[in-house]
Write a structure and sequence with these properties.
globular; about 140 residues; 7 strands; four-stranded antiparallel β-sheet; three-stranded mixed β-sheet; about 25% strand
């Protein structure tokens, strides 16, 4: 706020979170506490509320809300991506996986008890990340 003159404007109601996104700036924010341990960021695209549920629903980058950006990191460092670019990467990597081809990005798909996603090595993901100045410039130009 002080450096860029922007307020997140968090959505606190379930309806606001579901249809609008986490905040008025269109930034989905994720804390990934395993980045340092594995050197990857985890990009979620589906989830279920309990492990015993049968069906996963779209979430993360595939959630149909008004989020435009995806910010992920830990308390020391974060990366920002255009959500639509992560969706493109997901589809490209899914096609490679179906063809049993190796990912040049080093991406690996993961199935967790309540989440589906892919791990993206930080050293490769950084090539797609936006700087904070670019992010703020895009947000201000879209207002």
């Amino acid at each position: 706020r002080d450096n860029y003159g922007l307020e997140l404007g968090q959505n606190l109601t379930p309806e606001g979170l579901y249809y609008e996104g986490e905040n008025e700036l269109g930034i989905e924010i994720k804390n990934d506490m395993l980045i340092k341990k594995y050197g990857n960021i985890y990009i979620e695209y589906a989830e279920k509320s309990k492990a015993t549920n049968y069906i996963y629903v779209h979430s993360g980058i595939l959630k149909d809300d008004k989020s435009t950006y995806f910010l992920i990191g830990d308390k020391d460092k974060f990366w920002v991506f255009r959500k639509n670019r992560l969706v493109e990467i997901y589809h490209e990597e899914e096609a490679l996986r179906k063809q049993k081809k190796t990912s040049e990005r080093g991406i690996q798909f993961k199935v967790k008890s309540t989440s589906l996603g892919f791990v993206y090595p930080v050293k490769n993901a950084e090539k797609e990340a936006l700087s904070l100045d670019v992010l703020v410039g895009e947000i201000k130009s879209n207002k």
